[in-house]
Amino acid sequence: MVTNLPPEAKAKFAKYQEARTPEEKLQALQEFLSVVPKHKGTENLVRWIRRRMAELREEIEEKKRSKQRGRGPSFFIPREGAAQIVLIGYTKSGKSTLMKTLTNAKVVISDIPYATKTPVPGIFVYNDIQFQLIDTPSIVPDEDVKINRRVIGLARNADGIIMTIDLSQDPVAQFTSLRDILEKEGIIITRPSGRVEIVKSSGVNNIKFVFMGELVNAGPEDVKKLLESYKIYRAEIKIIGKVTLEDVENALMGINIYKPTIVIGTKKDLDVKGDNCRRLIEAVGNMAPVMCVSEKEYFSDDLGRYLTDLLELIRIYTKPPNGKISEKPLIIKRGTTVIEIAKILHEDLYKGFQYAKIWGPSAKYPGMRVGKDHVVEDGDIIEIHAKNI
Ligand SMILES: Nc1nc2c(ncn2[C@@H]2O[C@H](COP(=O)(O)OP(=O)(O)OP(=O)(O)O)[C@@H](O)[C@H]2O)c(=O)[nH]1
Ligand SMILES: [Mg+2]
Predict the structure, then answer these.
(1) Residue 204 confidence (pLDDT)
(2) Percent of the chain as helix, strand, coil, to the nearest 5
(3) What is residue 71's predicted lDDT score, i.e. its pLDDT?
(4) Which of 327, 329, 309 minimizes the C-alpha distance to 380?
(5) Which of 13, 298, 312, 346 is the most exposed place for a label (fewest CB within 10 A)?
């Protein structure tokens, strides 16, 4: 989609990526936009740039306002627990009711539309896993209003989405229009067959690959060349599933990002014959898992299981050398490497990392010695050896 940008545009994009403050980012995007050729192939990119610029302008405004009020922007919710999931839906689709039932959050529930005015986080616990759910103001249909952009901004920064659909209204119209709104903003709710994660690193120039799939139309050298054309010389690239060079470029630019999504039909008690639930399931098809619930019956175990599977969360257990295995698991994303675990556990383990020993599914034999790029699996026990510890 974004292939063949002229070198000048790539250089400007690199400048945008280096920019630190919203003001610098906005300026850099403006310059990037002015050199992006405008044709069919860049339509999505141009739309994405304009959106991002609007978001940045609002961020700058918000910063000014919060300085006057003396507190931080109210639309940023720091991540807690294993994953952050944003609720998205039209008004009175039962988002706040769902929050109240599943979490400890103090939310406003009302028959008056648009009762929720600001995002409210709460923790939903399933099998020792803490999911941070965020209640949000409702999406306003058919309008390009600020609140929609801000809620979608929340979703962009989250790990996943719960889409609420009111089963007492036309479920298909709600689902299709919400999916379209997200798609226009570059958020895809269906898992692509392959995807790429790019983490920029510091230190020596080095592009490192972690393969959990394959590159289909290119080799690692082509990827390196592509990254270098965007002035990226230090990064770790995870290839998951079947991935094309174009996928790498999209991931690099942060366009069309996949957000694992669960669709929840609410107010099942008002859908007496279950027709609307069936219509919703049919309309969603293989795009995402669907559940139909009511405030009396939330099937929270099913929801927990769906979230765990969809977000590809796994458990691992840690142990110090010659010590005991931790009782509680550490919940991480599938594909996490040993050095990433060291970083989560302790700065010293990360900085002084030497090697790790693994027992469990990812070890060829018990106590196998591995390096920092080893990818762990569900149920592994890991013992990290670091200097000076
Ligand atoms: N019958 C029935 N009513 C429900 C159910 N869930 C929520 N409601 C009602 O639907 C109305 C709206 O619910 P909320 O949870 O406030 O909806 P929301 O999506 O948060 O909506 P806003 O934040 O106001 O935009 C309230 O009057 C709820 O009591 C349900 O399962 N069954
Ligand atoms: Mg609400």
Answers:
(1) 75
(2) 40, 25, 35
(3) 55
(4) 329
(5) 346
pTM for the full model?
0.83
For domain 313-386, which CATH number applies: 3.30.420.270, 3.10.20.30, 3.30.420.10, 3.40.50.920?
3.10.20.30
The amino acid that residue 367 corresponds to is: G
User: Ligand 1 within 6 A of 115 CB?
Assistant: yes
Indicate the helix (H) or strand (E) that contains 283.
helix 275-284
Q: Would you say the CB of residue 272 lies under 6 angstroms from ligand 1? A: no
- Give the domain ranges of the chain: 1-73, 83-189+259-310, 191-255, 313-386
What is the Å distance from ligand 1's center to 109 Cα?
A: 6
What is the distance of C-alpha 255 from the center of its chain? 13
206: its two tokens: 């080095």
The model's pLDDT over 305-323, given as tens digits with 9 standing for 90+, comes to: 999 999 999 999 999 998 9
232: number of Cβ within 10 Å: 18
Beta carbon of 289 within 6 Å of any ligand 1 atom: no
Q: How far apart are CA 85 and CA 300, in angstroms?
A: 15
What is the distance in A from the centroid of ligand 1 to the CA of 120? 16
Per-residue pLDDT reduced to its tens digit, 7-51: 899 989 989 988 888 899 999 999 999 999 998 888 888 988 998
- Edge-to-edge strands of the sheet including 381-386? 330-333, 313-318, 381-386, 353-359, 368-370
Q: Which amino acid is at 175?
A: F
Going from the Cα of 100 to the center of ligand 2, the distance in angstroms, rounded, reads 10
pLDDT single digits (tens) 141-158: 988 788 898 899 899 889
Whose Cα sits closest to atom 1 in ligand 1?
A: 267
Please tell me the CATH superfamily of domain 83-189+259-310, with its number. Answer: P-loop containing nucleotide triphosphate hydrolases (3.40.50.300)
> Which of 90, 92, 300 to mutate for ligand 1's pocket (most ligand atoms within 8 Å of CB)?
92
Check pocket membership of 295 for ligand 1, CB cut-off 6 A.
yes
Listing from the earlier edge strand, what are the strands of the sheet with 206-215?
194-200, 234-243, 206-215
Residue with tokens 């269906």: 190
Taking phi over 0 as left and psi of -120 to 50 as alpha, with beta for the rest, 160 belongs to beta
Say how far apart CA 35 and CA 55 lie, in whole Å: 21
Work out the pLDDT band at 2, boundaries 50, 70, 90. low
